[in-house]
Write a structure and sequence with these properties.
It contains nine helices and 13 strands. It has helices at residues 12-23, 79-84, 86-106, 140-159, 185-194, 214-225, 246-253, 275-281, 289-292; strands at 3-7, 27-31, 49-51, 69-72, 111-117, 163-168, 171-172, 199-202, 208-209, 212-213, 233-238, 244-245, 257-260. α1 links the parallel β1 and β2. α1 packs across α6 (214-225), α3 runs parallel beside α4 (140-159) and α5 (185-194) packs parallel to α7.
Amino acid sequence: MKTSLVTGGCGFIGSHIVDKLVQLGHKVVVVDDLSAQENERFYYNDQATYYEKDISKDDCGSVFNGADYVFHLAARSRIQPTIGSPNECFEVNLVGTQRVLEWSRMNSVKRLIYSGTSSLYGHQNTIPFQPNMPSDCLNPYSMSKWMGEQVCKLYSQLYDQNSTILRYFNVYGPREPLKGKYAPVIGLFKRQVREGGPATIVGDGEQRRDFTHVLDVVSANICAMNLDEKNRFGIYNIGTGVNFSINEIADLIGGKKSYVPERKAEVRETLADISLTKRDLGWEPKIKLEDSIMDY
């Protein structure tokens, strides 16, 4: 039986990965400090084993013992809150990642799959974004996640620790965070409309995003886990290659709209080039936003 460890496995994306790994017959271990303030609740699978630990502060080394694969999702994961609180962001996303890599190395983990972000492409890169483009980090979140990628690369080069970076593009779907004004836009709009209010659109609403269903993200993680040992390190976009304006998202959900001022440190448009992902991982998205946005 294979053993997989998931950091951040009680959250939105992590809990779906846990469920899939259990379904595949893995022994699943989860490390999560249950601190994500944007989560209305945390999710558990009764066939997994859970440890409430902070990867940036607690000793988790023994938990990694026997793990074949590590799916690293634990992070401070919203852009705007990290602007006002950068210290914790770097502690968890950078120092925490290095510690996860070290525990993986010490326990001979076969591969670490790192949940990255498309926000590091920034303003200077033209769409569609390709994995070989330079980073253009606009906020502590994207900077800390990019630095985490660099530590993965270092561990691959120096210690032969196999790592795969998956850069997610605007993940949505069941269990998405709903709390607060910085919740992901689809969940936020659905909550606002359900409560009888308008969907609050930042700026003119013509900014565009590439939205990826969480179950497609899960399948990308499984494809990364199954990579050949010769693929020591790689960076892959996990998106759809199609984008939508925020106004279009509001129209798909329905209800009234209101507009609020633009926010700092956010890009105007994102769009993933997934040609490398298709070639190396054998992965492509199956779920279309327009068919699934109101299914949950």
